[in-house]
């Protein structure tokens, strides 16, 4: 007020707030008419409607629109992230299901071959139960997995068919063995070949497909962050531009409405952005931690059951089982490698300890068989005694199942925990955008009113 | 009331559309900019590939169809158990404490593991047991002095050449090709290649009747060599590692017939009431016990054991117990004659 009054009176200045630095922007006063001294220029309305108020109205519109767009796009963006993490969780759960089918199938195979080795002895019954349990569980999970994701249904139906064929061959092996016919061995071999060549590769493909879907979900989620910040940036630019223009035209430092709108957007994007970043981080640590551990543990269990099968087959085929012994070595190596991966990703070491114990027993069995004590080797491989192969292997199965359940539980827990916060963030963005729209409108309206 | 609202409405609309388009364009650009996903590796187990041994044998010079079953003259008189010349292979076996016999475990009636007794039983292994008795004496359980090494058809010769087994009692046909790498005892069994078909097949009597059909045969067998001959070119072949795989394929309807030694086929018929052996002998398959080429005195000793068996009724007894009593439609034949004119 002071510096302005020291200079020549500025007829256009009606606001009581002045800045000391705007001395350069004074429009030229009409030199002629004393009407120029009037505080409200009557001549102005004739040119203003096509000038400042019109621009102001346009800017108002733009601000409102950009705020609303921020609301919609921002909410959409947060949703993208939320949906992506939901997808990641669903596909992870499907992958765990399919791996459990795979595990059940090889568990059944291990039971079948060990039952065969036990012939009609007392140990056979519990091994036959393991076979039946494996097949039943696999069938049930196939149904669940087909319902959970119809994309997998066709392949799973085929797996189901082949599994039925496999079961039939095992029945023939059992029937022949029961009659003392060596043809049973050939049936067991054919069954095992059917499994390896036709059932298991299909399951491996399904696992890979679901893993890809999980990875894709994480990528899709990242786009959400980008979109949110872009929408915010756009709104911020428009609102700031509006404020700057107002500042120039009206010499008012702050437009409360626009300032409030900008603040709302900035605050909401920072909060929501942080929530999204937190959710993303959650997702990434889940992927690199419990998800990777779950994958590896399931792989380890599958390879371990394969090894157990090979152990029985080597003994069944007696001196002609060299290939099966090589398969055992390959499977055992794969098991240990997968267990290493699992512990790196955060799983406990119990599985490794118990599997090594089983490997030791297998070494004893091999020793007996290679030194001509075939029957003793078979006894150690089929007995239900605590120090035999079966019970030792069961301890590994129990330990690894516990680890697997823990890790896969973490996937669900971690990815479900982000739902509410992301919902909150969506709401926040929507609300902030709406508020910003209203505040922008109000901010411009205040100024526009001065032209009426 | 405001003069500005009416005028700027279309402008506002235009600007709105323009603004919307810009935003949409921006979001499309951001959507397209995606980083490549890193797929996590799923570890898979791979089975080690099976080694396929391929041996091409040439016939021993001077060996003909007439003299192929000739083996070395039997040691006579047969030394008593434990009383062998120092340095002889029998002395070595005795010192070791066990006779290592390469045999099968799934040829019913000839060499198979009986799941009820868990013993390897059959005609071929009983003949090998007689050899063990002649070395260690017939006291108690002779199986205490025998190590049965279960091997495939294809492993019979390599095991003998390496010295991993002392004797092969594995439905092994004597032929001139094999004489060039190993020795045989005198003939202890008279087998023939035959044809097995379904009981519902009333017309097929020979391999030639199976043109256009599939016949199953074992790799590494003389039966496969026969089937590869030109007159059978129109007969389709299914080649398997173990002959018992053929029974599975046959029962599943995947092959129409099986060809192999009647010894194995008898075992199949014993396991499957819908199988029958038909037709004439396709080839002669004289069986001998396989022995490493360098142990001629051991061959002579084994021939002595076989000669004793022929004469004192043991051979007939073993045949009766293992085959005639267990398979339908079989009568006990006379033991095959021993030809023993070989000098090298």
What class do helices, strands and sheet pairing of chain B give? alpha/beta
Spans where pLDDT lies below 50 across 5 or more residues of chain A = 1-36, 41-49
Coarse morphology of chain A = rod-shaped
Could you report the average pLDDT of chain A, rounded to the nearest whole number? 86
Structural class by helix and strand composition of chain A = mainly alpha
Q: Can you give a write-up of this model?
A:
The complex is a heterodimer of chains A (452) and B (344). Chain A is built from 12 helices and no strands. Chain A is mainly alpha-helical. The longest helix of chain A is centred in the middle third of the chain and has 68 residues, at 183-250. Helix content of chain A is 82%, strand content 0%. Residues 1-36 and 41-49 of chain A have low confidence and may be disordered. In chain A, helix 3 (52-118) runs antiparallel to helix 12 and helix 9 (350-370) packs antiparallel against helix 11. By secondary structure, chain B is α/β, with parallel strands linked by helices. Helix content of chain B is 34%, strand content 19%. Chain B is built from 10 helices and 13 strands. In chain B, helix 3 packs across helix 9 (296-312). At the A-B interface, helix 3, helix 5, helix 6, helix 7 and helix 8 of A face helix 1, strand 2, strand 3, strand 5 and helix 7 of B.
Blueprint (SSEs and pairs):
The complex is a heterodimer of chains A (452) and B (344).
Chain A: H1 2-6, H2 44-47, H3 52-118, H4 124-148, H5 153-178, H6 183-250, H7 256-316, H8 322-344, H9 350-370, H10 374-382, H11 389-417, H12 419-449
Helix pairs in contact in A: 3-4, 3-6, 3-7, 3-10, 3-11, 3-12, 4-5, 5-6, 6-7, 7-8, 7-11, 7-12, 8-9, 9-10, 9-11
Chain B: H1 3-32, H2 89-96, E1 99-103, E2 106-107, E3 111-114, E4 119-121, H3 123-136, E5 146-150, H4 156-162, E6 167-168, H5 176-179, E7 182-184, E8 189-198, E9 214-218, H6 222-227, E10 236-240, H7 243-251, E11 257-261, H8 262-271, E12 275-287, E13 290-292, H9 296-312, H10 314-324
Parallel strand pairs in B: 1-5, 1-6, 9-10, 9-11
Antiparallel strand pairs in B: 2-3, 3-4, 7-13, 8-11, 8-12
């Amino acid at each position: 007020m002071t510096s302005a009054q020291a200079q020549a009176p500025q007829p256009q200045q009606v606001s009581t707030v002045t800045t000391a630095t705007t001395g350069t922007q004074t429009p030229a006063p009409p030199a002629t008419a004393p009407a120029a001294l009037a505080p409200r220029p009557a001549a102005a309305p004739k040119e203003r409607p096509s000038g400042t108020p019109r621009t102001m109205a346009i800017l108002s519109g733009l601000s409102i629109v950009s705020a609303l767009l921020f609301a919609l796009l921002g909410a959409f963006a947060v949703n993208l992230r939320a949906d992506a993490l939901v997808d990641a969780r669903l596909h992870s759960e499907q992958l765990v299901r399919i791996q459990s089918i795979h595990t059940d199938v090889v568990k059944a195979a291990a039971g079948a071959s060990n039952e065969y080795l036990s012939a009609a002895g007392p140990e056979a019954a519990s091994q036959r139960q393991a076979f039946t349990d494996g097949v039943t569980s696999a069938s049930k999970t196939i149904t669940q997995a087909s319902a959970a994701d119809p994309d997998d249904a066709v392949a799973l139906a085929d797996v189901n068919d082949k599994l039925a064929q496999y079961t039939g061959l095992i029945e023939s092996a059992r029937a022949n063995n029961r009659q003392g016919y060596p043809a049973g061995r050939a049936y067991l071999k054919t069954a095992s070949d059917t499994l390896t060549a036709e059932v298991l590769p299909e399951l491996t493909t399904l696992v890979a497909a679901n893993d890809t879907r999980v990875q894709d979900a994480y990528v899709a989620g990242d786009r959400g962050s980008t979109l949110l910040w872009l929408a915010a940036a756009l709104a911020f630019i428009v609102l700031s531009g509006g404020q700057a223009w107002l500042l120039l035209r009206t010499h008012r430092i702050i437009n409360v409405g626009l300032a409030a709108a900008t603040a709302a957007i900035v605050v909401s994007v920072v909060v929501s952005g942080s929530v999204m970043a937190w959710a993303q981080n959650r997702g990434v640590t889940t992927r690199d931690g419990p998800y990777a551990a779950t994958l590896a543990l399931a792989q380890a269990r599958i390879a371990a059951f394969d090894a157990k099968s090979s152990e029985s087959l080597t003994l069944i085929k007696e001196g002609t089982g060299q290939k099966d012994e090589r398969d055992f070595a390959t499977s055992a190596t794969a098991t240990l490698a997968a267990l290493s991966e699992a512990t790196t990703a955060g799983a406990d070491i119990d599985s490794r300890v118990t599997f090594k114990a089983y490997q030791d027993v297998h070494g004893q069995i091999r020793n007996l068989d290679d030194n001509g004590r075939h029957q003793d080797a078979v006894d150690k491989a089929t007995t239900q005694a605590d120090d035999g192969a079966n019970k030792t292997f069961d301890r590994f199965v129990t330990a690894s199942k516990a680890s697997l359940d823990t890790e896969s539980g973490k996937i669900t827990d971690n990815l479900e925990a982000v739902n509410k916060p992301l919902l909150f963030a969506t709401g926040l963005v929507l609300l902030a955008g709406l508020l910003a729209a209203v505040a922008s409108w109000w901010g411009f309206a205040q100024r526009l009113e001065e032209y009426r | 009331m405001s003069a500005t609202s009416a005028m700027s409405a279309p402008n506002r609309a235009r600007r709105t559309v323009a603004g919307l388009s810009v935003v949409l364009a921006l979001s499309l650009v951001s959507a397209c900019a995606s980083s490549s996903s890193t797929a996590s590796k799923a570890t898979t187990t791979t089975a080690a590939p099976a080694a396929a041994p391929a041996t091409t044998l040439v016939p021993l010079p001077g060996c003909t169809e007439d003299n192929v079953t000739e083996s070395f003259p039997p040691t006579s008189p047969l030394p008593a158990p434990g009383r062998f010349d120092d340095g002889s292979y029998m002395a070595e076996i005795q010192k070791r404490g066990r006779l290592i016999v390469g045999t099968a475990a799934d040829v019913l009636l000839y060499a198979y593991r009986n799941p009820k007794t868990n013993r390897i039983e059959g005609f071929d292994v009983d003949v090998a047991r007689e050899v063990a008795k002649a070395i260690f004496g017939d006291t108690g359980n002779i199986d205490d002095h025998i190590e049965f090494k279960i091997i495939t058809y294809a492993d019979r010769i390599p095991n003998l050449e390496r010295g991993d087994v002392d004797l092969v009692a594995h439905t092994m046909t004597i032929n001139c090709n094999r004489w060039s790498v190993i020795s045989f005892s005198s003939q202890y069994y008279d087998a023939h290649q035959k044809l097995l078909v379904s009981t519902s097949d009333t017309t097929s009597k020979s391999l030639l009747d199976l043109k256009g059909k599939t016949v199953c045969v074992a790799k590494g067998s003389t039966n496969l060599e026969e089937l590869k001959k030109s007159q059978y070119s129109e007969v389709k072949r299914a080649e398997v590692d173990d002959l018992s795989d053929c029974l599975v394929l046959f029962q599943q309807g995947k092959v129409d017939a099986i060809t192999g030694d009647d010894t194995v086929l008898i075992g199949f018929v014993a396991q499957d009431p819908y199988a029958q052996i038909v037709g004439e002998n396709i080839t002669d398959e004289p069986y001998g016990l396989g022995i490493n080429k360098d142990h001629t005195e051991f061959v002579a000793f084994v021939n002595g054991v076989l000669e004793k068996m022929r004469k004192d009724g043991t051979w007939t007894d073993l045949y009766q117990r293992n085959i005639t009593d267990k398979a339908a439609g079989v009568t006990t034949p006379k033991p095959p004659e021993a030809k023993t004119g070989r000098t090298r």
